[in-house]
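ARCHIVE CARD
SHELF: 3
SLOT: left
DATA:
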Amino acid sequence: MTSDSIAAVRVSPRAQFVLADNPTMMTLDGTNTWILREPTGSRSVVVDPGPNFAAHLDAVEEAAGEVALVLYTHHHADHTEAIDEFARRTGAPARAIGPYWCRNAEPLRHREVITVDGLELQILATPGHTMDSMSIVLAQDNALLTGDTILGRGTTVVAHPDGALAEYLHSLEVIRELVVSGIDRLFPAHGPVVDDALAVVDFYREHRQQRLEQVRRSVAEGRTTAREVVEHVYADVGQHLWPAAELSVEAQLLYLRKHG
């Protein structure tokens, strides 16, 4: 695939994305690399350059123009693999919650506001999917970039030890407060844009509580290991998904040990 066949998709006055050709069971259609720029601005902010595919990075550069800053929503490789190559190409500093994923810049701070040529972004720490996960408030477009915290389709994985359920549930509450206050669209790192933000956030909250209750009942019935719980709770799910489900159940078991 060449950059000529990869087109950026505009979804708001300030946001467009380039879809990486890395579809998997976990990445859905692939990684959305977001390009944010004020309509009157000359420089852009790129979020999650993604895999180190030359054609993808060419397309991102073409759409982004001059890049002032690169942001990473979390450390998973489908978001960060191209970190050094993209820094070499653009010369732009890179920032993330985790210092290892920063290049020539300081780590991001919760509630920090970043301004580039009139574009205003607020960083929101939303741990849970991973402990370094963050979201980005694009209030000028009534939108929130959610990384992998909320996907455009299906639900995300909260897998022990990389993720933690208590933190994830709290992050969903933080996001819901934003949505109730006026954010009405979600721009995820995988899958399509979410236009009914409140409905999807509430679905995520209810889904997590339902799964947690299923695990709670399974433990009460005498199942003690994550594998045993998966075989019962995820009996209707393809066994190729069970390894990921086991990690998710480990996170739920840890939550139940701490919170009941």
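SLOT: right
DATA:
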Amino acid sequence: MPVKKENIRIGFGYDIHRLAKNRRLILGGVQIPHQFGLLGHSDADVLCHAIADSLLGAVAAGDIGRYFPNTDPKFKDISSLLLLKKTALIVKTAGYRIANIDSMVIAESPKLSPHIGDMQKNIALALGIKKSQVSIKATTNEGLGDIGRGKGICAFANALAERTK
């Protein structure tokens, strides 16, 4: 049975963090060996943050800072997978289910392709969806800008949500 267009919603998310010494590099809930990690209040997982924002946007529920402010000590160094679990509950409470996620991580290094399967699995588990509903792609910035000079990593995400109520 076809889904009525008024019952589907699309959201967009973006996040960026600087790379810093003495931090772990966490993307999609996977710790990736690297000389630098992402600087932020939580684990600074730009992929999870972009996905959370895309989901919140899809159900017109604001942004990640509204629910998980970087000024709140209870979110200090928290796993962003936990934030995704809480985001999935917000989506469900709003009367929607997550249909799919499409995302892109932009990093000059390290090579992310060996980790994408684990990232998909972690994100799907956190959101209560199938791994096949989570698309993650990675690319570089071809040496351009601060991302291209290895000073940071960013991520973009789109989410499709379907009304359940």
